[in-house]
From TrEMBL:
Database matches in SUPFAM superfamilies: GroES-like, NAD(P)-binding Rossmann-fold domains
Gene3D superfamilies named among the record's database cross-references: Medium-chain alcohol dehydrogenases, catalytic domain, NAD(P)-binding Rossmann-like Domain
Organism ancestry: Bacteria, Pseudomonadati, Pseudomonadota, Gammaproteobacteria, Lysobacterales
Highest taxon of the lineage: Bacteria
Protein's UniProt name: NADP-dependent oxidoreductase
Pfam families the record matches: ADH_N, ADH_zinc_N_2
InterPro entries recorded: ADH-like_N, ER, GroES-like_sf, Lipid_raft_assoc_Zn_ADH, NAD(P)-bd_dom_sf
PANTHER family for this protein: PROTEIN AST1-RELATED
Organism: Dyella koreensis
Length: 312
């Protein structure tokens, strides 16, 4: 078999530019494996690449197959691969500019995958990488929030994939978590373990009080409203835009702009927590691969609780 089914974009634009078509099946090179994809996670960055929002900073070589998160089985191994064998169940996150997980097969470096725990199914595994890694790296990496037990964390946009992991991981660390989301998301946020849930429709965060750290997953007006809540010497991280240097200086605060990196050790640790039931994966909806357009439209409309996953 030399071809496969995949979602491909030949130009930037709305979700309608995504085509379900036959494409050349990739071949594993040195240090790579070919994974037969069972499920692929859908992330906000996927539609932002598709729409062209990132083309000046990270241009794509078109045509391009979107998608970074995936779970499946090793179908073939390239030269110099010893850590994985055909038939191994794996999951991971391909590195930019590869993408390629919206397909029946994807080629990735062995550094981008880990073995899937038996107690985690492929749909759950595909929902882990980008969301969990982003949350983990924002909360715990050196130079980011470096969250500690007993601190108070404010999470803006807490109900999505990254926020859902962030709330749970912060609670496991022993932090107090204030989660900000829509009214329809309140029950979900409480179930995640948030100590206080704030409705964005209130349009005012002043009643929240002072916090040690802010994780901004939405940007814009909410990001601006969060700054006065940050204690002097606190930390502010954002996945949306570099936090204000002026605001940080006024509060002697650390800042971090989070761009997720694949980290096998962190992936394996999160997967272990999920298998043990210590952290939950929240799947908003599963869709067949050919319905990728619908998945993008749902994400763009916002308000999705958890993760959207495509199945092959």
């Amino acid at each position: 078999m030399t071809t496969m089914k995949a979602i491909q974009m030949h130009e930037y634009g709305p979700a309608s530019v995504l085509r379900y078509e036959d494409v050349q099946r990739p071949v594993a090179g040195s240090g790579q494996v070919l994974v037969r994809v069972v499920a692929a996670g859908v992330n906000p960055v996927d539609w932002k690449f598709r729409a062209g929002y990132l083309k000046d900073m990270m241009p794509l070589a078109l045509p391009w197959i979107p998608g970074f998160d995936f779970s499946g089985t090793v179908d073939a191994v390239g030269p110099d691969v010893e850590a994985f064998a055909v038939g191994d169940a794996v999951f991971g996150k391909s590195s930019f500019p590869g993408g390629g997980s919206y397909a029946q097969f994807v080629v990735v470096s062995t550094a981008d995958i880990v073995r899937k725990p038996a107690g985690v199914n492929h749909v759950q595994a595909a929902a882990i990488p980008a969301g969990a890694l982003t949350a983990w790296q924002a909360l715990f990496n050196d130079g980011a929030l470096e969250l500690a037990a007993g601190q108070t964390l404010l999470v803006l946009g807490a109900a999505g994939s990254v926020g859902s992991f962030a709330v749970q991981l912060a609670k496991r660390k022993g932090a107090r978590v204030i989660a900000v989301g829509r009214a329809s998301q309140q029950a979900h946020l409480r179930a995640l373990g948030a100590d206080l849930v704030v409705d964005t429709a209130r349009g005012d965060l002043s009643s929240v009080g002072q916090v040690d750290a802010v994780l901004d997953l939405v940007g814009g007006e909410l990001q601006e409203q969060a700054w006065p809540l940050l204690k002097r010497g606190g930390a502010f991280a954002s996945t949306m835009s570099p936090p204000s240097a002026e605001q940080a200086s006024a509060r002697v605060a650390r800042t971090a702009f989070i761009f997720t990196q694949t980290n096998a050790q962190q992936l394996a640790e999160v997967a272990s927590l999920i298998e043990l039931g210590s952290v939950a994966v929240h799947i908003a909806k599963t869709l067949p691969l050919e319905n990728a357009r619908e998945a993008h439209e749902l994400l763009e409309a916002q308000g999705v609780l958890g993760k959207l996953v495509l199945t092959t």
